[in-house]
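Consider the tokenized backbone below.
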């Protein structure tokens, strides 16, 4: 599989983005059946977010419809800084569909087998980099 370089906006930070972008409350939609060895990565990212003082609510979803439903409900509640899709491309797609029309940012924990979307976006693949990216990177539109 071809590896892409990280997106130019990562890890570039300015004082303005550092103070205005920091996110601390995450709703995570997790597909535990995605990927072969993704459980270790998912656990490591969660640990790093918790060590950073984040509030995390995680929900298991088993279909793209359920991903969308959970994301839509989280966006409607408005009690999280971002909704994270932890799984593969199908999980990301379902979660993104649920967030359409809301101002809630989508974050990605690439825990699937191929993770084509994450690779195309140039997202980091290591737990420390993923956590830092989720916490501090500017929201792309």
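A designed sequence for it:
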């Amino acid at each position: 599989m071809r590896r892409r370089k990280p997106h130019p906006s990562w890890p570039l930070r300015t004082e303005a983005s550092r103070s205005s972008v920091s996110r601390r409350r995450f709703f995570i939609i997790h597909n535990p059946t995605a990927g072969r060895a993704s459980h270790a990565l998912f656990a490591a990212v969660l640990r790093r977010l918790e060590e950073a003082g984040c509030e995390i609510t995680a929900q298991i979803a088993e279909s793209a419809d359920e991903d969308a439903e959970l994301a839509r409900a989280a966006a409607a509640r408005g009690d999280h800084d971002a909704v994270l899709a932890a799984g593969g491309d199908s999980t990301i797609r379902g979660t993104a569909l649920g967030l359409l029309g809301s101002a809630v940012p989508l974050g990605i924990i690439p825990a699937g087998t191929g993770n084509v979307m994450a690779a195309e976006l140039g997202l980091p693949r290591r737990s420390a980099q993923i956590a830092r990216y989720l916490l501090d990177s500017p929201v792309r539109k």
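Helices lie at 15-21, 38-51, 64-77, 89-99, 116-121, 127-136.
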